[in-house]
Design goal:
It holds the Pfam family Glycos_transf_2. This protein folds into two domains: about 200 residues, Alpha-Beta Complex (Spore Coat Polysaccharide Biosynthesis Protein SpsA, Chain A), CATH 3.90.550; about 70 residues, no CATH class. By secondary structure, it is of the alpha/beta class. The N and C termini lie far apart (about 45 Å). Strands 1, 2, 3, 4, 5, 6, 7, 8, 9 and 10 form a ten-stranded mixed beta sheet that branches.
């Protein structure tokens, strides 16, 4: 038995990368008849539509044009059209390996598992991407979910899926933690999930040295908002750990200069804004 997937892709400013993602699904070992691809296009009309629909007539693609930008908002638009057993949210510049969906389907055929999460990994270079991922299977809980989550590696049974908080994520007022908040709320609803390194996807490695101070501020505000939203003991602990980490980085930066000038000021300013302005949303 194979499960049906709905992949919701909110895309902006990328064409080749999006086509590479779709091609990775087409070339994979999973039956494409079991894959629904929902494209929520935030570009100007004509950037994608005719080319996308003409080149992939053999695939089940639902194309939606959106006049409003925002990652979480447009993922929520795509959710309205999802029909699959399993819902996921790949970035428009990631890729699936040939066996990715097979691995996920095998796991989620278990009626006692509501969602699964995996790692972002480059099989060619044999390197973790974005963060150091656990190489052990884990039962996901509200604490460890923050350290092992990425929206592109979350695969959830449809009956458990919630809307994203549209105040969070790229294009929103608070520019991060939409994925952390999403999985945290699913866990609050008593969902049972696992993390396994057997699930692998590819994503380009971000260049953190080129990140602007405005983005640093915006991303930090997302964490502040996430912590302040329905704050509980676990979120307080996450907050304390992050502050400790940043203070250690600040001290080390005095000697090694790994962060650009103004980084820590921007980070803590953004963190304060996220906490302070949560109630205004």
């Amino acid at each position: 038995m194979l499960l049906n997937f709905s992949l919701i892709i909110a895309t902006l400013g990328r064409k080749k990368e999006l086509f590479d993602l779709i091609d990775s699904l087409r070339k994979g070992d999973y039956y494409t008849s079991k894959i629904q691809i929902i494209i929520v296009d935030q570009n100007e009309k004509g950037f994608l539509d005719k080319q996308l629909l003409s080149e992939y007539k053999d695939l089940d693609i639902k194309y939606i044009h959106s006049d409003t930008k925002g990652l979480s908002l447009n993922r929520n638009i795509g959710l309205k059209y999802a029909t699959g057993d399993i819902i996921c949210f790949p970035d428009d510049d990631c890729k699936f390996y040939n066996d990715t969906l097979i691995e996920i389907s095998n796991i989620l055929l278990n009626p006692n598992i509501d969602f699964c999460m995996g790692q972002i990994y480059d099989r060619e270079t044999k390197k973790d991407i974005i963060k150091r991922w656990s190489k052990k299977d884990l039962k996901v809980n509200r604490f460890n979910s923050y350290f092992i989550n990425s929206s592109i590696t979350m695969f959830i049974k449809k009956n458990l899926v919630l809307d994203f908080d549209e105040n969070l994520g790229v294009g929103a007022k608070f520019g991060s933690c939409e994925d952390a908040d999403f999985i945290y709320r699913i866990l609050q609803n008593k969902a049972n999930g696992i993390y396994t390194p057997k699930i692998e996807l590819w994503h380009p490695e971000p260049n953190y040295q080129e990140i602007s101070l405005e983005k640093v501020k915006n991303y930090a505000s997302g964490f502040g908002y996430f912590i302040r939203k329905n704050i509980d003991t676990i979120k307080i602990l996450l907050f304390i750990l992050l502050i400790g980490k940043k203070m250690m980085q600040f001290i080390l930066n005095i000697f090694k200069k790994r962060f650009p000038k103004g980084y820590f000021k921007s980070f803590f300013n953004g963190l304060y804004i996220g906490i302070k302005e949560y109630k205004l949303c």
